[in-house]
Each structure stands twice: as structure tokens, then as C-alpha cells.
Amino acid sequence: MTQWKGIGMIFAVCGAFCLSLFGHNDQSGGSQKDHLIGQLFLFVNCLASSFEVILWRRLLCNVSEGSAHLQVMAESYLVAACLMAVASVTASFSSSATEFFCPECHGDPWHVPADALWAIAYSVAFQTLLAYSLQAWALRFAHASLVAVWATAQPVMAAIVTVIVLKSRGDPHGVLTWPGWEMSGALMIFAGIVVSEYGAQLRTSTSSAAMVSHYSANEFAAPAGNSQLKRRLPDLYC
User: Fold this and answer.
1) How many Cβ atoms are within 10 Å of 146's Cβ, its own excluded?
2) Which of 11, 73, 144, 210 is the most exposed place for a label (fewest CB within 10 A)?
3) Quick one: DSSP state of residue 48?
4) Which one, of 147, 176, 142, 175, lies nearest residue 160 by Cα?
5) What is the pTM of this model?
């Protein structure tokens, strides 16, 4: 990790903390304890996602197959689906676990409201299949730290979409609320992205120039030197 990326990640993480800690809304229901538990689960989710990005990057940085990113994503989510099935079945045998994880289920762990099917379909098709396929593809060319910094922009995009929906009166059930002071963290997140992108561009140009200057004019012109250079250039991004 370069100095620029480190600075960018500090900005992004601080912005994410602002979005999380200052975003408590008393109108959302639930006790303070419930909100703290939710924040803890969100932290564990972010930690697991970070490890996922690092692992995918290690698997994809030197591959040449065009569909390698789809294979990695499919295998990862096959394992995740199996683990989720085991966890769901195990939790369904405990009424207290069912009440803890799903108070709206009223004791039925397999209850799925009919009006939630569209949301589930959207989450599977766009949030999971499309979004993570694009993330896996990006990890073939970008550093894991840069992809992780961009991932912190998710709550900012969610807030923008929320404003658009509220402006268009597309919230008939009144479940959405206007963003508040927590959006001050968006400025730090965008600052982190800009700093990280600048550092990535600077490192790419410097490393490419150093690699090319390493070879003499004869080696660079020769076919063997050309192939050797092409084999080494992808290593700049791993």
C-alpha cells in the first residue's frame, strides 16, 4: 500500500464512521441496544468484505482467462449460500434466535412477506450478481486497497438514491427518511477516493517508466524482450 492510498483510506474510513455514528434516527424504531448490535454486525460485514476483496485480488491479478472473475464469484457465493443455508436451518430451531434476527416474523422463521419478493429479486439480480461480477472484474486490474476505498461510496450512493425517491414521492409506506448531518462523511469519502485515485495514477506512471527504462533499446526491440516485458507489466498491478 502506498502513502497516497493510506491517506485515502483514512479519509474514507473516517467518512464511513460519520455516516454510521451520526446516522442514528430515533424515528426508525428499536432501542439503543438494537442499534449498537446492528452497528456491530455491520462492522463484521465490512471486515469480511475486506478479506473477500483481498482474497479475490490474489486469485485474479495474474489470470488470463476472460471469465475467471465470474468463476471466482460463482465459487465464492456457492460456498456462502451453503453456509447461509446451514445458519438459517440452525437458527430456525430456536425461537429466541428467530425473534432476535427477525422480530417481524412472529415466530415463523420461513415467513417471507409477499411485498418483499421484488426487493429480494432486485438484491439477487443487481446487488449480488451484477455488482459483484463487476467488482470481481475490477479486481483483475486494480489493487485491493483501491477497490476497498471505492466500496465506501456505497452509503453515499444509497443516500443519493433515497433523496431521488423521496423527491419523486416514491415512498408510499414512509420507510425512508431524509439524510441528515451524517452526510458530512460523504465529503471525506469522496476526498479519500480522489486521493487514492491520484496515488494509483502516480504509481502506475512511475512504475511503467521504471520498467521500460530497465530494458535497453535492443532488448525492448527484440521479440524476446518484448514478450518478457509483456509478462512483467501485469505484475505492476498485483
Assistant:
1) 25
2) 210
3) H
4) 176
5) 0.65
Q: How far apart are CA 162 and CA 51, in angstroms?
A: 29
pLDDT at res. 20: 67
What crossing angle do the helices spanning 144-151 and 184-214 adopt, rounded to 10°? 160
Q: Do 134 and 56 meet the contact criterion of CB atoms below 8 Å apart?
A: no
Round to whole Å and give the CA distance between 25 and 177: 9
d(CA 170, CA 148): 31
Closest CA to 191 of 32, 64, 7, 35: 7
Distance, CA of 125 to CA of 197 (rounded, Å): 29
**Per-residue pLDDT, 175:** 77
Q: Are 56 and 143 in contact (CB under 8 A)?
A: no
Q: C-alpha grid cell for residue 124?
A: 439477487
CA 177-130-13 angle, to 5 degrees, is: 55
DSSP 153: T
Q: What is the pLDDT of residues 139-164, one digit of tens each?
A: 888 877 777 777 777 777 888 888 88
* Main-chain dihedrals φ then ψ at residue 62, nearest 5 degrees: -120, 10
